[in-house]
Amino acid sequence: MRITGKVIGMSLMAAMATGCSTLSSWNPFASEVKDKPAALVDIKGGMAVKTAWKYSLGKAGAYTFNPAFAANSVFVADADGNVARLDAATGREQWKVKAGSDLTAGVGVSPNGNLVVVGGVKGNVIAFDGSGKQLWKVQATSEILSSPVAANDVVVVRSGDNRVTAFEAATGAKRWSVLRTTPALTLRNAPGIVIAGGNVYIGQPGGKLLALTLTTGVPRFEVVVAEPRGATELERVSDVSGTPFVYENDICAVTYQGKVGCFDLAAGTARWNKPASSDVGVGVDQRFVFVADANGAVNAFAREGGQSAWKNDKLGNRRLSTPASFGRSVAVGDLEGYVHLLSREDGAMLGRVATDGSAIRSTPVVAGSNLIFQTQNGTVAAIAAE
Q1: CB 192 within 8 A of CB 180
Q2: CA torsion 217→193→94→97, rounded to 10°?
Q3: Residue 20: inside a domain
Q4: pLDDT tens sequence across 48-89
Q5: Which residue intervals define the domain Pyrrolo-quinoline quinone repeat in the entry (predicted)?
Q6: Does 254 reside within a domain?
Q7: What's the rounded Cα separation, in Å, for the pair 355 and 230?
Q8: 40 in any annotated domain
Q9: Which strands sit side by side in the sheet containing 288-292, from one edge to the other?
Q10: Looking at the 3D structure of the chain, how many domains does it have?
Q11: Deepest in the core among 13, 163, 204, 291, taking most CB within 10 A?
Q12: pTM, to two decimals
């Protein structure tokens, strides 16, 4: 049996029990939670944390929608086809449009805020200008789960068949396309794309990180973050999770059932790697690389050398989001819509704030003095801390 397209709504053990010979994708978020999420305890002392503003959008459904920040605005989308631009400081809606299609991924925004791109059902790629006017609509080769990325003159999209395609920002004309092979079994997640230094970096199935020249798609390097290991296809799943993170001359990434590591941005030379397993991406700042692992622990590694700095395991089985460095804290969302703030120095709990009770799967984004989260039920929340 080959499972494609739709989310697998069964536990990992159930998947093994079906007798499937080949699986194409497995969604860790769709699997049953075997262990009860850790109970939340009162936080004494800590720091003042509050919700600066909230905005209500539609639900994400089976997909993950990441907010984006550019030109003092936050850009958001939902599964029903709504795309909106908000003032980052106040949450005031600047415009909201219908994409004309249900959506599966977004949002990608150019640095100047003049190009906004989302992924639609059946592989549609839809682009708008900074005022919400549709510019073009083109067809990718298959379903899009990863947020598109946009420079000022090009849009890059990764489709479900692991084809990376670049389109002209002005017209939607195809500039280049690169197809990579995939293992028999991969995570059904949204491995991210990032543009930096004239290259585009794409997390790959099988634990690899691929760098392509942005203008032509010519490969610059492909490095192994973690080698797949194990006797079965399930044990050998070691895909790069979430979006690789660029900080100065480093690019850092984490895999599921594998490792976390940082590499030289230009050459791909490995700086360090350490054992880790996560189905979301990494957070990085000047001193640390943060990983929310598959068991719900938040880990900090020294950015220089990779030594373990601290580990907080008080959020076990709470399905944590990608961490984000935020002032003197590191913040993560969870399966019940809570945002937790931990000390970036030692991992101690500093604060907590509720959103709407639904899971936070999106990658948080720093927008000025606020940290933006989007829940699966469509609440966009700006979190502010002292």
Answers
A1: no
A2: 70
A3: no
A4: 999 999 999 999 999 999 999 999 999 999 999 999 999 999
A5: 80-312
A6: yes
A7: 39
A8: no
A9: 282-284, 288-292, 298-302, 308-312
A10: 1
A11: 291
A12: 0.90
